[in-house]
Write a structure and sequence with these properties.
The protein is α/β, with parallel strands linked by helices. About 30% of the residues lie in helices and about 25% in strands. The protein has 9 helices and 16 strands. Helix 2 packs across helix 3 and helix 5 packs parallel to helix 6. It is globular.
């Protein structure tokens, strides 16, 4: 089978595209013929070695997938050959990745894909939608009528947070670095967009919500805790999902006097049950077109190295041309 894989960590050029043996099913697994996959920043961190994980040899890259069940292993229940499925959490913690024509996936990480939902949409939202759901509802416990500030509302996770927060009945404020991104954020459902090149974020929040926001969602690699704590209402909740090497100053006094809370979250440490609950809601929203994917670039599997270069340019170097997900075609539907 055709796959994109590495033999050692390094720059995007270490990614090879070639033939590997089709994986053998273990009990409790399904064999999925993959149609679409997507790229995430964590994929590039693992490939580069910035995040050290146990990697099989050869290691197939990628977390997200959408495709069709080709075979079911011993002990599998709830899935049959021909089922349309999607999932994430692959290519992590010793598991093989998804950038291949066929992948073997534990049934607990596999979710049914509703009819009518395109494979590319499911792949594009997989990791980012699960991340948004966990942070909003498991951790921040966002409620209807509350206000949330999402830093970067057109990014992979940010675009999911904006949409899900609106679905939950919250008022959504987000930030954007260009007029095009501001328009995109409004199209996703944001109530207010702060163009931070025109007005400082803190000043805009004070103008829009004098009493502060209930939830502050930080997507940047270098969090600004002074900004966040000043922007939060009493008992505000902050969600952190990036910045492994960040060591910013923290305003301890204002934080605890406001009785705020801080929630660090990593999608791949969630339990199968937590992810399954998120997938249930995501499926419903996708099927009813209430949740929309945010795809910026479409490539083929042969362009796997290029996809990683593009993702790194956006994540590490602030390249503003990428305004959504990179999706790759593996097998045509």
């Amino acid at each position: 089978m055709k796959a994109a894989y590495i033999h050692q960590t390094g720059s995007p050029e270490v990614i090879q595209v070639g033939d590997l043996p089709r994986p053998e099913l273990q009990p409790g697994q399904v064999l999925v013929q993959v149609h679409r996959v997507a790229v995430n920043p964590i994929d590039t961190y693992i490939r580069s070695g910035a995040v050290a994980m146990q990697l099989p040899a050869a290691f197939v890259i990628g977390c997200d997938f959408a495709g069709v069940v080709n075979e079911v292993g011993e002990g599998v229940s709830g899935f049959k050959v021909g089922d349309r499925v999607w999932g994430s959490n692959q290519g992590l913690l010793g598991r093989q990745g998804t950038f291949a024509e066929y992948i073997a996936v534990d049934q607990e990480w596999t979710h049914h894909l509703p009819e009518g939902v395109a494979f590319e949409d499911a792949a594009a939202v997989a990791l980012v939608a699960i991340t948004a759901h966990l942070g909003l509802f498991r951790d921040a416990k966002l409620k209807a009528g509350e206000t949330i500030l999402v830093i970067g509302g057109t990014g992979g996770v940010g675009s999911m947070v904006v949409q899900m927060a609106k679905l939950a009945g919250a008022s959504v404020i987000t930030t954007a670095g260009s007029d095009a991104k501001a328009a995109a954020a409004l199209a996703l459902g944001a109530d207010h967009v702060i163009s931070y090149h025109k007005e400082p974020i803190g000043e805009a929040v004070a103008r829009l919500v004098p009493d502060g926001v209930n939830v502050f969602w930080e997507t940047r690699r270098e969090p600004d805790f002074d900004l966040a704590v000043a922007a939060m209402a009493p008992r505000g909740r902050m969600v952190l999902m990036a910045g492994r090497d960040a060591r910013p100053p923290f305003p301890v006094g204002p934080f605890y006097v406001k009785e705020c809370s801080l929630h660090g979250m990593v999608m791949f440490k969630a339990s199968p049950d937590e992810i399954a609950q998120a997938a249930k809601d995501i499926n419903q929203w996708l099927a009813t077109e209430q949740l929309k994917s945010n795809i910026s670039v479409r490539l083929s599997l042969d362009q796997a190295a290029q996809s990683h270069s593009m993702q790194e340019a956006a994540t590490l170097h602030g390249n503003s041309t990428l305004a959504g997900k990179i999706v790759l075609s593996v097998n045509e539907a």
